[in-house]
Each structure stands twice: as C-alpha cells, then as structure tokens.
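Quick question: what would this complex look like in 3D?
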Amino acid sequence: MKKIINDPKQVVEESVAGFGSAHADIVRVELDPVHVVRADAPIAGKVGIVSGGGSGHEPLHAGYVGFGMLDAAVPGAVFTSPTPDPILAATKAVDGGAGVLHIVKNYTGDVLNFETAAELAGMDGITVRAVVTDDDVAVKDSLYTAGRRGVAGTVLVEKIAGAAAERGDSLDEVAAVAERVNANARSMGLALTACIVPHAGEPSFDIGEDEIEIGIGIHGEPGRERVGLEPADRLVDRLLEPVLEDLPFGDGDRVLLFVNGMGGTPQVELYIAYRRAAEVLAERGIEVSRSLVGNYITALEMQGMSITLLKLDDEMIELWDAPVQTAALRWGR
Amino acid sequence: MGLDINWAVDWVRRSAEVVAEHRVELIRLDRDIGDGDHGENLDRGFEAVVPKLDDLAAGSTPGDVLKLVAMTLISTVGGAAGPLYGTAYLKAAASAGTDASLDGSAVARMLEAARDGIVSRGKAESGDKTMIDAWTPAVDAATEAAAAGADASAVLAAAAEAAASGAEATEPLVARKGRASYLGERSVGHRDPGAQSSALLLQAAADAASESTGA
C-alpha cells in the first residue's frame, strides 16, 4: 500500500484538520466529536442542512459545506457511518430555530445512526426531518434488500435543497424539494480498479487487470456484472441504458447530466464519457439543460466513474443555478 | 432471588471479555456476508464501557448500568450495530427502571423491551437473518420460563440457550435486511454475525446471573 498518510488511525482527523485550515473562510472544524460546520452557522430562521457518512468519498460531504449548500457535514471513519453523537453535535450547531434537514445516503448504518441522532435532537427540542437518497439503479429495489444505495445523486440533492434553504424555504418545503430531486435522479457506476481502505491496507475487492465491474457502489461493493476491457463509448452505454430505462427518461425531458469520477480517473477520460452520454441523450430527444463533470463523490483512489441523470423542472433549474460557495462547488457569488 | 447492580456490572465485564474473545470470529462471519467490521466495532464499544463502570455513583441500579452501556455503544460502535445495540440497552434500561433488584418476570420484560427496541430501530422481522432471529426466541423462552415461575437466573439461562439456537438457525436463511441483503441467495450458508454476538451477550448475562445467585 502506497499512500500519503502518517498513521492509518489518524487519516480522518488529520484530513479534516487540513480541510478546516485550508477553508477557514467557509467552514469551522470541530474535532471532538468530528464535524465540519459552516463558518456563519447557526443562521437564525434558516433551515439547517446536515449530511454525513463514511469518509473516503471526498469532496462529499465536507466539500459541500458553505453558502447555498450544507450547513454541516459529519465525516465518519473511512467507509464507516459516523456515530450519533457527532451527528447530534452538528445538528445542534446549525439549528437556527427553523428545524434541521438530514440528508442521508441509504446504507443501513448511516440510516440508523442518523435516526438515532434525530431522536436525541428531538429530545432537545430540535425538529429534524430526514431525506434518504437512493439513486443507484444497479441494486434491485425490492422488499428483500435494504433498498437502493445512495450515490452521486446525493450531490445534486445537497445543492438543490441547500439553495432552497438559503432562499428561506421552510423545513417541509426543503425536505419536499430534496425528495423530489432524489425521486428524479438515477445513477450507475463502474470500476476499473479497487480501492484500499487505509486501516485495512489491502484492496477492498479483487479485480483483474483486464476486468471492469459494472454497477459498482461507492465502497467497492459488488456490481451487476463483470466485463472485459471495452472502449469508453460502450462502457457509457452500459451505464446509461439502465439509468434511462429506470425512471424512465424520454423524448422532451430536460436533464442535468452528471459524469462523476471515482477518484482515480482523470478528467480527460470523464469528458470522453460525457461526449458519448450527451450524444446518446441527443439521439433520444433528451435535452441536457445543465451538466457537471468531475470527481464529486469518490471511492478513495478507485478508477471508475458514474453517470447520473436528473430530470429537471423549472424550480430545480433555478435552485441549481442559485449561488453556492463551498470548497468544492462555487459559482454566482 | 433477584438480580442487582452487581449482576449488571458483572454482565458488562463478561460481555467485554466474551466479545474480545470472539472478535476474530465475528469479523470473519461479517466479512462473509457484510463489511467485516462487526467484531472490531463491538469490541471497541465494550472496551470503552468497562472503565466507565468505576464512575457509577453509589446506589446505582441495574437500569443505570444498562443506560451507561447504551450511551457508550451509541457513541463508539458506529455502523448498524451501534444504534441497534444502543437502542436495545436503552429500552432495557427503561424497562428495568429504578428497581434495585430484578426478578424473573422483570428480566423477561426487560429482554422483550430490548428486542422491541431493535425491531423498531432496524425494522427487521423474524426470518430476515438478523439479530432478531436470536432475540425473538430468547424473549419467547424467557417469557415462558418467567410465567412458569422461574427465577431471574433461570429465565436468563433459558433466553441464552434459545438465542444460541436462534443464531445457529440463521445459517440457511436468505438475508433480507442490512448489507448482507444485497447478496441475496449468496448469503445462505453463513451465520448472521449480529445474531451470533446477541447470543454471546445473552450467554454472558446468564453466566453473570448464575454466578451472582450461586445457582
């Protein structure tokens, strides 16, 4: 294992400390328990938005704390949900009296820890609502699994809900728009390589030099199928097809096309993928109204990508375009 | 004879020992069908509880001990097991209340409250291949024993035995909750790590009771 770390046990704390000093104009960092809070929180009368989850997906979630997006992020150990106490501390830190929205990716541990924190916050008189993201079409949604995983669509939910909170929407309104974004977003990813969790020291799964896992999650969970090496266009088709079919997306729809890198894939490749995805959408009469390309929700150093489509309406477009000032997303301000 | 604060403290110490002893086994079970951190996380949690036992105020009750365990597990374990076990101990503490001593039926009610807490937090049902598959047989056996007039120690012994059988019986099941559910049929043939750790903790409770009552 080759990594730029000092001590596997200190990875999250040292990284979060560095993040705090690099972006002191935007956030403040608390280390006991670990959470990252918008510098000007709490903001009286504004709905607070808290997200969090295992570390290793940076810039998610701390990179999205700031004006127009999250009020706080709670990073757990690498690929491990945070416990309820830092979630509770973050919730209290951002409560401006209008209630707090938790944005939670659908993994059993995350959901249970956020629920427990919400219950504890309720005992302290803070109204909390939660929106659970589950945009990954690779997992069958049935009564017999824990449901679909929350992946790249989460970034879009955080941006759009954050803008709604920033303009003064109520907790119910912010939760409703977050749910609407999640309901209209679909994603699917692939991996060319595995990633190495620092404290594990070895790859999280085995994948051959000439193999690609289709339908991967953001922790290297198994996908739908394993295929041999193929050109970028064919790989994009493999991701896009199930995404398009699922909602479904069709002629006349306006979408946000989000091509996300898993951490180890360069932008030059992501844009090759974007080119093909845009081509396929055009053929189907789907209008790409907005786009996002880059490493926004990652799995450490994994090589791979995901494609997310969000079916847009006028309000979502307005909220997407609204000013945002975070470490990882910044425009209009 | 009822179970008092000494039993509760001894249960926690024995829990920490048994989890440390079975840490690798639990990690292995979890690696087969989950993410492999169950033994590590639970060991970290109970290791954190033990030193806090020294800070218990004089006159503390079994309920106080259970609450201490709950809060510590919630803040140290993480994953799914932290909130699930934390809720179980929190509900058990509420059921035990401020009583200095718990008789057979109080123990059965306490186990039932713990189980109901896990169900309400995790939304799992019997047969989903989760810790509920150890807890529900344990609660049924405890309730039956208490109704037949068994003392607290015998109630826990019945619960522990049923939990162990319940954990073993998860092996042929298809997981329907938690990370293992993504494996579907591939989860068959593996024992659920949460059911196994639940059986170990209930056995520790029974052992502490048989020691404390000299049964």
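Answer marked as accepted. The domain at 8-183+320-326 of chain A is CATH 3.40.50.10440 (Rossmann fold).
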